[in-house]
Amino acid sequence: MTRWGMVIDLDKCFACQSCTAACRMENNTPVAGPDQAERERTILWNEVLPFEEGEYPNVTLTFIPRPCQHCDNPPCVKVCPVQATYIDEEGIVLVDYNRCIGCRFCTVACPYQVRYFNWYAPEWPEELKEHLNPDPEVAPRPKGVVEKCTFCVQRRRKAREQAEAEGRPFNPTDFIPACVQTCTGKARYFGDLDDPNSLVAKLAKSPRAFRLQEEMGTEPKVYYLKQG
Amino acid sequence: MMDRTYQESELERTVLSPLRQTSPQFWLAMAVLGAVFLWGAVMLVRQWILGLGVTGLNRPVYWGIYLANFVFFIGISHAGTLISAILRVTQAEWRRPITRIAEAITFFALILGLLQIWIDMGRPERVFYPLIYGRFQSPFLWDFTCIGVYLLSSTLYLYLPMIPDLARMRDHMTDAPAWRRRLYTLLALGWHGSHEQHRRLEKAISIMAILIIPIAVSVHTVVSWIFGMTMQPMWHSTIMGPYFVVGAIFSGIAMLFIFMTIIRRAWHLEKWIGPKQYNYLGILLLVMSAFWAYFTLSEYLTTGYGSIIHEQEVLHAKLSEEYAPWFWAMLICNFVIPFAILVWRKGRTPTGTFIAALAIAVGMWIERFTIVAPSLTRPSLGFEKVLYAPTITEVAITAGSVAFFAILFLLFFKIFPAISVWEVEEGEAIEVVHRQAEALARQKAILTGS
Fold it and tell me: Are the beta carbons of B122 and A49 separated by less than 8 Å?
C-alpha cells in the first residue's frame, strides 16, 4: 500500500510562496480580503511560516513551508466527534465537508494549526471567479466547516483514472500535488514513503531530515531537510 | 377529593402565594430580562445567517466565550443536584428549605450549557450528527453522554421530591387556571400520601441522591477533558478534571446563594430560609474557596517552576501580559473577597454571602475564560501571539443566555413551589419529636435522681 509523504529541502526553499499561490488556485481556497486577513482569518492550506531566532544584530530568519503534516497518528482524527475527519487507507488525512459539524475541536487539537475554518460563506473577486478549478472534488466549501491541505487528492484521482484509461497499473510517481509541481527552487519531493527505493523514502532517512514537533508523537509524513 | 374544612398552614400559604398572584415587580423583571434575551436571540439568528465570522474568533483562537459559557453553565449545574444530594445523604436537616431551588438551578443550567455548544457550532443544523455518527474516541461524545445522563437524572431528582407537593397543589389550588390544575394532576401521579407511597418515594429519592453524586463528578471531569486531552500548553494537565469539579461545586454554591436570596426576598420566604442556611452553606462556600485556591496554586506553581517554553508563554500571558487583568481579577473575586467576608460569622448573612457569591459568579466565569482563551493565543508552532477580542455578538448572546436562564428559573417558580413544603413539614415534625424525646429523657433523669 502506498504511504504518501513529502520532503521539503529548506536549503533550496527561498520562501517565494509560489506553493501557497499554486495551492490556492488548485484547491479553490477563498479570498479573505484585507479586513479578514487582519483578523487572522486567511485560509492558506500551504502557509510559509517565518521563524525568527536570536536578537538584533545576530538574527537568523528561517522559513518553513507548512502543508498539513498528514500525521500517521493524527490528533485531529482522534477528537472528531462525528468522524468527519479521517485518515484514508493511503495515509492522507481528509475532511468530509458534508459531515463536519463545525465544532472546531480538530482545529484546536492540531499542534501544527494546519486546519482552517470557514468563518463566512466563501467569496472571490469577479476576476478570480472564472479561474476557479472546476473539479467537483475541490468545489468551494460552505461556511461553517473545517478544511485543510489534502495532498491534492483530486490529482491522485485523476492520475488513477488516466492510468486506468491507458490500461496500465497506477504508479506512485504518476501524480504530484500542485505545490510540488510549482516549487521554484525544486525544494519539494513527493512520493511513496513505504517504497524504500523512492526518492522521498531515501531523503526521509537523510541525517538532515527532521519533522515538526516530533515530541508530540503525531508521526507526521512531511519531512524537512535542515538548512546549512 | 377536596376537603373544604382544610386550613392552610402558614408555610403553605406563603409558599403558594407567588403561584397565585403576580406582583408588578415580577412583570418588570420579566420585561427587562425578556428584552436582553431578545437581543441575544436576534444576534444569534444573525450569526446563523452570516456565519461565525461575526464573532471575534480567529486562527488559532478557535474557541472563545461560547466555550467559557459552556463550562460555566455546566459548572453551576453542580449547584444543585450535587449539593442537595450530599446534604440529603449526610442528613443535614437545614437543607430542607433550599433543595428545590438548588435542583432547579441544575436543571436549567444544564439546558443553557448544552445550548452554548449549539451556539458555538459552525453547522448548527447538524446538531444531531453526534447521535447518528458519534464516535466514542472523541471527548465530545463523552460530554454528550455524561451531560445527557446528568440531565435525565437531575430531572428525575428534581421531580421525585416534588410529587407530594404537586398532589397538594392538585388538591388545594382550585383557584388556579385549568391548564395548571391539569398539569398538577398529571404530574402528581395519583399521589395520596399513603404510608406505602411515602416508603417508596423515600427509597427512590435516596437511591437517586447516591447515584447522582458520581454522575455529577463525571460530568465536569469530562468537560475538562475536552481541553485536557489536547496537547495545548496548560490544557494538557492531569489536574484539569479535579480542578473543574472543585470549581463547579464552588460556583454552584455561589449560584445557589444568589438565586435563593433573590427568591427569598421576592417570594417572602425569610422565615424558612434563614440564618442557619446562610451560616452553614456559607462555611461550605468558604471551604470550596480554599480548595479552589489550593488547586490554582498547585497548577500555576508547577507550571511556573518548570521551564517548558510553550507553557511559560501561556503562563506569562496570564500573569503579566494581556490576560493579567483577567487573571488577577479572578483571584480577587474567587479568593480575596469571599475569604474576607465569609471567614467572619457576621459576614455569613444574606447580604454578606450575596456579595461574596456575586464575586464568585463573576470570578468563576473569568476562570473559565482564562482557561479557554490564553492557551490558544500562544500556539506552539511559529506564530506571533494572536489576540482575541470578543465582539458585540458574543456579548449579546452571553447576556441573552444569562437572561434566558433567569427567565426559565423565575417562570418555573411561578408554577411550582420554591420550597419543598412536605419536606420542611417533615423536618418540623422530626424536631418536635426530638424535643419531646429530650424532655422525656430529662424527666426520667429527674425521676431516677441521677
Answer: no
